Amino acid sequence: MSSARPHVSDQERRTRLVRRHLLAPDTRADRVEEVAASLIGLHATDPASVYLSARARMREPSVGAVERALYDDRSLHRMMAMRRTMFVVPDHLAQAVHESTGRAIAAKERRGAQKFLLDGLGWTAERYEAAEEAVIAALRELGEATAAELGAAVPEIAERVHTDAGKRYASSQAASGRLLRTLAAERRIRRGRPRGSWTSSQFRWSAAPEGEDTPRLDEAAAKAELVLRYLARFGPATLDDIKWWTGWTLTATRRALADAGAREADLDGATGYLAPNDDERGPGADGPEAPTTALLPSLDPTAMGWRGRDFYLEPDHVPALFDRNGNIGPTVWWDGRIVGAWSQRRDGEVVWRLLSDIGAEGRSAVGAEAARLTAWLGDTRVTPAFRTPLEHELRTG
User: Fold this and answer.
1) Are 25 and 287 in contact (CB under 8 A)?
2) Contact 67, 88 (CB under 8 A)
3) Distance between CA 313 and CA 317 in Å, rounded?
């Protein structure tokens, strides 16, 4: 790593965030694939967030454009990746993301699923593997199927595991849940169109095309590539940021930074890292001509892009904007900062509240953006999967 330590101020980091994450009007994308690439991936734990994150960054956003990329062109891949979180990743990054983060997650998923089903149902390892092969065979015959439809075709995966019997929190889970999640993590099957609208999380499943396997990337090389991609879009970032965002160990993170040739930067006394070819006064250093606003959904990749968020989020605002597990709700942005929250009420209106004073110009811009989002959503109602205190208050107030 270079010994040079250029200084990057918080203001410059916010300027980079606005431009590199396509939040300024002149940076908007024409295609959803460009949006996903600008953020490496779109958070997809909450299906609606994929569409709302894309909408905030596209010149002419539409639900149809996202659906075509996900389900027709297959230029976007929904996959379990960084931090064991669901992401939608552009095709050209999918292999590196899988090799650097997803493959280890898939191996852990397999161990957990086998233990859950072997212990819970008394299956043998051979029966587990036979059930997997039967599911894939059924999907090749059916083309697409929901978990319930697969349970009818492969009855053993409809068997239920009962846990905590006799307790008030006793529950049961079909074998299909763990088995399908593992196959998806291994990229042997994939999620198709959901049942219902684009906000639904009840997906249909299909088998991965035969003969689609690509040569495995070297894990270390894949990790170095992912770090370079991350620093190009989110840098400068600290070691803790990168470790948290990827979900890697400290040792793996340090090695990936070294392999990537990352160089150090001074973040007002803290050590950050830049991509080796990133000129601190290069693209992203000069801000937009005027402050910009954005209404970003829960778990948006920008809001969840760093562990150290003080440069764009007041610490005092965290309790109102996050749930107890660290999931951020829908946020209002102004000039590269989170300044409030928004929600959609039952009548469809998008309402918002500021936690910071952004002046008359800022309030007018946020109001106009809320009106545009209300019109874009139309009859669709969006409820975040993870409710946060201020979002809940706005929705019911």
Assistant:
1) no
2) no
3) 7
Distance CA(130)–CA(132), nearest Å, equals: 5
Q: What is the pLDDT of residue 62?
A: 97
Q: What is the Cα–Cα distance from 28 to 383, expressed in whole angstroms?
A: 26
Rounded CA separation 394/22 (Å): 27
Model pLDDT for residues 334-354, shown as the tens digit of each residue: 999 999 999 999 999 999 999
pLDDT band at 316 (very low <50, low <70, confident <90, very high): very high
Assess whether pLDDT exceeds 60 at residue 280. Answer: no
What CA–CA distance (Å, rounded) separates 9 from 3?
19
Is the domain of 386 the same as that of 352? yes
Q: Note whether residue 11 is domain-resident.
A: no
- Among 185-189, 211-215, 224-228, 318-322, the least confident range: 211-215
| Structural domain count, the chain | 2
What is the domain range of residue 199? Answer: 91-207
| Domain assignment of residue 99, yes or no | yes
Amino acid occupying residue 369: E
Distances, alpha carbon 101 to alpha carbons 34, 222, 253, 263, 351, in Å: 22, 9, 12, 23, 37
Kindly report the backbone phi and psi dihedral angles of residue 351, in degrees, each rounded to the nearest multiple of 5, phi listed first.
-115, 160
Token couple for 18: 């606005």
- Domain boundary residue, one of 189, 207, 225: 207
Distance of CA 299 to the CA centre of its chain: 7
Q: Are strands 86-90 and 42-43 parallel, antiparallel or unpaired?
A: antiparallel
Cβ(101)–Cβ(256) below 8 Å: no
- How many Å from the N-terminal Cα to the C-terminal Cα in the chain? 52
**Distance in angstroms (rounded) separating the CA atoms of residues 314 and 43:** 23
Residue position matching structure tokens 């965030």? 17
Q: Where residue 285 falls among pLDDT bands split at 50, 70, 90?
A: low
Residue 62: inside a domain: yes
User: DSSP strand E in the chain: where?
Assistant: 42-43, 76-80, 86-90, 160-163, 171-174, 189-194, 203-207, 237-238, 263-267, 270-274, 293-296, 331-334, 337-344, 350-354
Q: What is the pTM of this model?
A: 0.93
